[in-house]
Every structure is written in C-alpha cells, then in structure tokens.
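hiii, so i know i said id send this last week but things got crazy w the move. better late than never?? heres the sequnce for the chain we talked about at the cafe, plus the structure i predicted for it. fair warning i was half asleep when i ran it
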Amino acid sequence: MSAILEHRSTTTERDVEHVVAGLVTDGTLQPAQADVLLRALHPVLAGGPAVEHVGIRTGLRRHAAEIAGYLGAAFVALSAVVFLSQTWESYSLPTQASLLAGIAILTGLIAEVVLRGRSTSVEGRQTRRRLAGTLMVASGVTAGMAVGVLLDDPQVATLIGLAPLTAFIVCGGGYLMAPTAIGQLGLLAAAVATVLSTAQATSQENLVVGGLVVMGIGAAWAALERRGLLRERTLALAIAALTSLAGAQIVLGGAEGSTAGRVLAYLLTALVAAACLAGYASRQAWPLLATGVLATAVVVPEVLSEWLADSIGLPGLLLASGLTLLAASLVGLRFGRRPHAAP
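okay and structure toks below
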C-alpha cells in the first residue's frame, strides 16, 4: 500500500487491476472482494488515470449487460424450441440429432467468443466468465440431448447413459475453460444422471451399485475440493456432503426387501454423518456441519423404525426421533461456537 501511495502519480488503473486479477486467479481474493478493493483504492489513484468505471454507475451498466446476455440467450433458445417443435416430428432421428449438435456447437463457440472478449476490469472479466460458463452448461445439455436422440431405440437402450456422459464431458471442458458455480452444478447433474440412467437401463437392483457410485462421486468431489481444483470451494463441500448422503439413501431405496442391503445403507448414512462432523471439526465449513446434522437426523429414525417400531410404537418412535433432532441440534451448536478457520 505504501508503494502505491508513493507512486500514485505513475500508478495506473491497469497496474492495480493486473495485481488484483492475479490475486483473484490464485484464489486469494474473491471477485466481490476484488471489486471492494478497487473501490477502496479509488481515492489513492485519484491523481492518475481515473478508475471511474469501478463506480456504482458503471457497475450497474455491467450487471445490466450481463442480465441482457442471459435474457438474450434464453429468448434465442426459446425461439429455437418453438420453431423446432412445430416440425420436430417430421424430422428423422439423425436430422434431429444433427440440429441439436449444431446448436450445442454454436453455443460453445459463442461462449468462447464471450470469454475471449476484451475487459479492462476484474469485474468485467468475471462477468464474461460467468456468462461463458452458463453457455457451456447449455452446450453440454444440448449435446447430451443430441446423443440421447440417437439412442432412442430399444435395441440400444442400455447405452442411454452415454447421453448424460456426453453432457458431463462438455460441461467438464466448459468448467476448465470458465469455472463457475453453475458449471460445477452442471457437472454434478451430468455425473449423477450418468450413473442412475445406466443403472435403471440395466436393472432396478443396480440402484444399490448406483448409490455406491453416487457416494463415490461425492468422495471424488471432496478430493477435488481438497486439492483446490474446484474454484467455488464452499459449494464443492456442499456438493460432496449432500451427494454422499443422497448416495447412501439411494442404496436404501434399492435394497427394498433385503435386510442386509438396508443395514448397509444405514451404516453408510452413519458414516457420512461421522465424516461430515469430523470434517467440520477441522475445516469449520458450514455445509459439513449441516449435512452431518441432517444425516444424523435421518439415520437414527430409520434404524429405530427398522428394529424397534413394533416394540415402542408410533409415539415412542416420534419421541426418539425428536430427541435425536435435539441432540443433533446441540452438537451443531457446540461445533458452531468454535472459531472459524480458513479452509
């Protein structure tokens, strides 16, 4: 800061934004924090080329442009849907797939153009990144639909998992190009859809295997977050925890009629609860605490209902469930009093 004060006559907006952009890239600052920092430095740089575009008026213009971009893309997509819906059934399957593939490619190219556009501010680059990331998710969804159309045949029904897998690959490339929260959610949705659609296309019994794979997705998400490969780290932790919990419950749904399968699901749910609470003890990340408490509140009534419902009856089951929720709440409050540490 002292160096900036000493050289304010020669320090330009581009110099400061170059440094701040580097801090955003390496994860030291969040985009919103970068914007606050630039606003705070505005009086210091008043003697040099003005940083007026970090003001409120220009910020509003930038957000308006971003919203206009989203709305424009939505209306273009809607017009294409309306147009194609009128003649869609008259097209052959290869033609339908080609049209969808063309839309996916065009959307991806637009995302590339948006991302490579010139922006002189950190917030401007972040806006372009968010818009490009959203477009790449749309491109991935459309590409998956194109493959799904080609696989709309009973003879290749077992390959239907290739459709969400295609979406996953495209969304993954989009996330590498422009990491965003919606890109991460698109990756998750495509990964889970790939697992579940493949399981359902083969046999209902594979839901147990599918649930285990979904839990594996959650574990992989946690590992990627731990290594810093996912930019939105709080969201990544929430995805990892909730996906693992959902996987355990999918195992329970697929184990209907099997006592061993249900016991496995209960153990897995309890494992998720323990892992999340232990993780919160070291990371102090609220998604871990919330999921740990939720998993505890889910698994205890399930276990009681499995083995004690006949002996304690409905009132006893409700009482035990309520006590479990209170205990989970107390655990959450106890953890919550601990000082928060950076992840």
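btw Residues 207-343 form one domain. thought thatd interest u
miss u guys!!
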